[in-house]
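queue> pop job 88
queue> type: inverse folding (structure -> sequence)
queue> payload:
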């Protein structure tokens, strides 16, 4: 099966180059991805993630009076902090682990005026 996929991939690449096209291969870090807290995360994990991420990145965005304060709960604030950390550290899957409480998503979690940063 693996050999068939390699042969198929090679054939498609060759066909593309013969036709004058070009292939762009995007790595995970080039794709639009965000890091959020898993919905199953407990409060202790969320608080640990908040404390850790906010000790490294600026978490002002979800302070009272800023665009991401509401909803004022730990899962929302932890998700924003985790994403800030993830984006600022290269968007590698290991930068969203947070002791297995992080989840990489390809759908923008932004809502209302609260914009989850992408590509810092």
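queue> result:
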């Amino acid at each position: 099966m693996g050999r068939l996929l390699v042969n198929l991939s090679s054939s498609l690449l060759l066909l593309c180059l013969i036709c004058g096209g070009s292939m762009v291969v995007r790595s995970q870090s080039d794709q639009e991805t965000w890091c959020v807290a898993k919905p199953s995360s407990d409060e202790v994990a969320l608080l640990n993630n908040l404390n850790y991420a906010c000790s490294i990145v600026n978490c002002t965005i979800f302070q009272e009076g800023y665009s991401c304060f509401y909803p004022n709960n730990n899962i929302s604030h932890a998700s924003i902090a985790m994403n800030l950390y993830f984006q600022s550290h290269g968007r590698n899957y290991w930068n969203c682990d947070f002791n297995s409480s992080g989840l990489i998503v390809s759908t923008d979690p932004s809502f209302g005026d609260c914009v989850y940063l992408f590509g810092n």
